[in-house]
Design brief:
binds shikimate-3-phosphate, alpha/beta, 8 helices, 5-stranded parallel beta sheet, globular, 14% strand, 5 strands
Length: 175
Amino acid sequence: MHSGPDKTVFLCGFMGSGKSSLAKTLAKALEREYLDLDEYIEQAEKKSITALFESLGETTFRELEQRHLLNLLEDPSAKIVALGGGTVCFFDNLVRIKKKGLLVYLKLPAAALVQRLSASPQERPLLKGLSAADLKSRVENLLEQRRSYYEQAHLVVDVLHSKPETILNALRQLL
Ligand code: S3P
């Protein structure tokens, strides 16, 4: 892992785990720039993630996502980056991210994710148009597929039982 005060912190975890919101809080506390990979892609491509998913399909979206991730990894300034929910699960993204900075997994059980996602107004192409029962099984299946990637993070945070201050203290020990 790249070390020193210029180390970027990357937040990974399932959709709805609170990556963007925690990234903003951490960025403020650590006086770092905040960046959201989805927003970075949307700005560069001038299209929403939903529109990109629809026009490209998931396979090509993942290639595009990696291209933008690699650009971002070239930037030497230390940031707090909220990744997309699938970013660390494709190609060699996980290894590349872990080499460049500190990877944090925001861990939540499937039931809590389902609850948060059902209440979220945000458009999510992978969960679009699902009934409550289908949402539950989609989240459970996807989380099962992704768990082994997420768990390789440098720091695993139990979101339901950790306050932002606790996470911040754990991070400070590692930065
Ligand atoms: C995805 C999560 C989304 C976005 C895209 C794919 C995923 O980001 O990158 O819709 O594969 O889990 P959020 O986790 O910020 O919703």
